[in-house]
Design goal:
- With 442 residues, this protein is an all-alpha fold.
- The chain has a single domain (7-203, 221-441), classed as Growth Hormone, Chain: A (Up-down Bundle).
- The chain is built from 17 helices and no strands.
- The longest helix has 33 residues, at 43-75.
């Protein structure tokens, strides 16, 4: 039976991206530089801490996905998982940025690791079922594009609000420790509110009998989904690589603004997100004319070329960089919306071949892959910083970075992500589903 896609459903689902966009943006933007330039943690150690928390995500996401499927079968809804995550996340997000002044780097690092690990767990409780919902809320190739496009508009607005506004809140306080804490309180409340409202879009149905599965069975279900669905493997590998590229640039934006451009990160974010907001509906229109797959390829090439052009900052840094950043923003809108609208197509294609009931499992593996990409982006950045001689510092100490560190920041924002985007197009070349395939399933 087809699902009727109403405006209320679209709006309630999309508002969840206020939370997912905020959480995906803010830690990636400020967490590493918070550790290196305020807590005095060495770059490589900061990267290891962020990666460790994200590795935990990779471990638990498939379990949450399978348990979400089980909740749908037993209780008729994925809602309990989403509400639990929405309520827990703000508390531990605030704790992540609440390290007291004067805390040594080792203790501070352990504090951030534990608090952020629990925060990431709460986010997964919401995000994994949230990713699975479009396959259940909308029927058909174009309806899912419409649903995801609305989500991406809110997502890009969230990136603008959190990426541009949160650093300004932090800078408004003379004491960096207080600034980060106030920033975390404001952001945590907004993130949790968006997630909580969107939790109620998860439909309630009649419970059905469901088998009991162990945690090991949950992992087996995730691996089985990967093995049997070639479209899923191709799309996931592509999205993981692109998450790595965008995560690298996101984590590097604060460093680029501070050490290369000598400005706040807000202007850089405005240059990126304003075009993304404008182009999110454009990519939906383009995809209806030429297909999601071709539109996605064009968006990716646009982003990659824009990133590559910024290597010129090695010789001529300046405000001209905002132009290629704007082009990257236009491409980024398509790189986000189109794969997420293809994922429900993959799920429905699999359900037609093997039976329904695995949307949460697919969502769990997808979120694990996305998380891996974003986490590795921060890791790659910290490796480049460490290799290029970047100097960490505490909030009360001013340092001067060597030229090698400045060059490392620029390369991490240009050539490296461009090369990763090129590799992602190789993996995407094997994605087989087209509109006719999905319409046949429908």
């Amino acid at each position: 039976m087809e699902s009727v896609l109403t405006r209320k459903t679209i709006a309630t689902y999309a508002i969840g991206s206020l939370g997912t966009g905020g959480f995906a943006t803010l830690p990636g933007l400020v967490l590493v530089i918070y550790m290196t330039d305020t807590l005095g943690i060495a770059p490589l150690a900061a990267g290891i801490l962020v990666t460790a928390a994200k590795v935990w995500d990779v471990i638990i996401d498939p379990v949450i996905g399978a348990r979400s499927d089980r909740s749908l079968a037993l209780r008729g809804s994925r809602r309990p998982f989403m509400i639990a995550g929405a309520l827990a996340l703000p508390v531990f997000f605030i704790l992540t940025f609440a390290v007291p002044a004067g805390t040594g780097p080792v203790v501070a690092g352990v504090w951030v690791l534990l608090a952020f690990l629990i925060t990431a767990t709460a986010f997964s409780l919401f995000q994994v079922p949230y990713i699975a919902l479009p396959a259940e809320l909308a029927s058909g190739y174009d309806d899912r594009t419409k649903l995801i496009s609305a989500r991406v508009v809110v997502l890009t607005l969230a990136i603008l609000i959190f990426g541009g506004g949160a650093p300004e809140i932090q800078k408004a306080f003379a004491d960096p420790y207080t600034g980060y804490l106030v920033m975390a309180v404001v952001a945590g409340v907004l993130i949790g509110a968006g997630m909580l409202v969107s939790s109620f879009v998860a439909r309630r149905g009649e419970p059905v009998a469901a088998e009991s599965f162990s945690i090991l069975d949950n992992y087996r279900a995730g691996m089985a989904a990967l093995r049997r669905s070639q479209p899923f493997r191709s799309l996931l590998a592509t999205f993981l690589l692109q998450g790595l590229a965008t995560g690298l640039m996101l984590a590097g934006a604060a460093y680029l603004s501070k050490w290369v451009l000598g400005t706040g990160v807000t202007v850089l974010f405005l240059s990126l997100i304003a075009p993304a907001i404008l182009f999110a509906p454009v990519w939906a229109i383009v995809s209806r004319r030429i297909g999601k797959e071709r539109a996605f390829t064009i968006a990716s090439i646009l982003f990659g070329v824009a990133a590559l052009s910024m290597v010129v900052m090695l010789w001529a840094p300046g405000e001209w960089v905002y132009a290629p950043v704007a082009l990257a923003g236009a491409g980024y809108a398509g790189m986000q919306s189109l794969p997420m609208s293809m994922l429900p197509d993959v799920i429905s294609h699999d359900a037609e071949r093997t039976g329904p009931g695995s949307a949460g499992t697919f969502g769990g593996v997808w979120t694990a892959g996305e998380t891996t990409g974003m986490a590795l982006g921060s890791t790659v950045l910290t490796i480049v910083l460490a290799a290029s001689g970047y100097l960490e510092s505490v909030a009360t100490v001013t340092v001067v970075q060597p030229p090698s560190a400045i060059a490392g920041i620029i390369l991490a924002f240009s050539i490296v992500p461009a090369a990763i985007i090129a590799l992602s197009l190789v993996t995407f070349a094997r994605y087989p589903l087209r509109k006719a395939d999905i319409d046949a399933v429908r």
